[in-house]
Amino acid sequence: MNKGYVWLVGAGPGDAGLITVKGLHCIQSADVIVYDRLVNPELIALRSDHCEIINVGKEHDYHPIPQEEINQILLRHAQAGKQVVRLKGGDPYVFGRGGEEAEVLAQHGIKFEIVPGISSSIGGLSYAGIPVTHRNHASSFHVVTGHTSQGNEQQNWKILAQLEGTLIILMGMTRLMDICQQLILYGKSPTTPAAVIMYASHSKQKSVTGTLETLAAKVEEKELHAPALIVVGDVVNLAETLSFSPTYLTLGELFPTLENSAEEAIS
Ligand code: SAH
Fold this sequence. Notes:
One of its GO terms (biological process) is siroheme biosynthetic process. By secondary structure, this protein is an alpha/beta fold. The protein contains eleven helices and ten strands. A five-stranded parallel β-sheet has the order 3-2-4-1-5, sandwiched between helices. A five-stranded mixed β-sheet has the order 6-7-10-8-9, with helices on both faces. S-adenosyl-L-homocysteine binds at residues 13-14, 38, 60, 88-91, 94-96, 119-121, 124, 170-171, 197, 199-202, 226-229.
């Protein structure tokens, strides 16, 4: 009997310690790990000795492996009876095409399971001192992409500009100036607080805060670029008070009993 199985696992936003316990178990049990660029290498290092790893790292405007081929890689290994982990940044179903990958598996009768992860669109903000909601500042949040796929309609900035909640824009950095201008054009105040967080929760995280009017120039000056989150709303003002220095534990420190400590396996 073919026992091939695919886990679509969320790796979390960057800090290795933010993987779930179940996700870590999948990594350690996998025969094959198919992973993206934003996945922390410390997590890959926790695989077993026999595990094959395949980097299908996707970058904006640079897709070394087309999605169709990624789907085929998953199918091929599952059909060969392997335990496959598809390790994706953040949560597998928040953008990043996890839904499409699962559909292909379902269409081919491959058994699969989703292991959710902490999405950069929620958890990532907290590492820059920004709570996604706050009783006094935002009673909803809205996560959108700034980069719609070819042929699709543009985002409806007119509607988005009218929302009171926190607006979080993924994949928007190449259009940052335009996005800020559209939101102002459709009625948001130019002084609305706004931030960009690059590499949220990674040790190389950098963020910039400003307003819809000033953000793009500040980001250019500080040379921030993708992967980054754009955050718009009053909660951004809390960053001054709520920023913290994260404790970065390696997985070897978090789980001293792991056979492969992350440091050993990476070196
Ligand atoms: N599934 C992922 C999102 C994939 S889409 C999640 O749940 O987080 C990829 C986009 O997500 C990037 O272009 C960027 O806008 C955002 N992103 C993902 N991880 C990030 C991080 N650590 N820091 C900043 N932005 C991140």
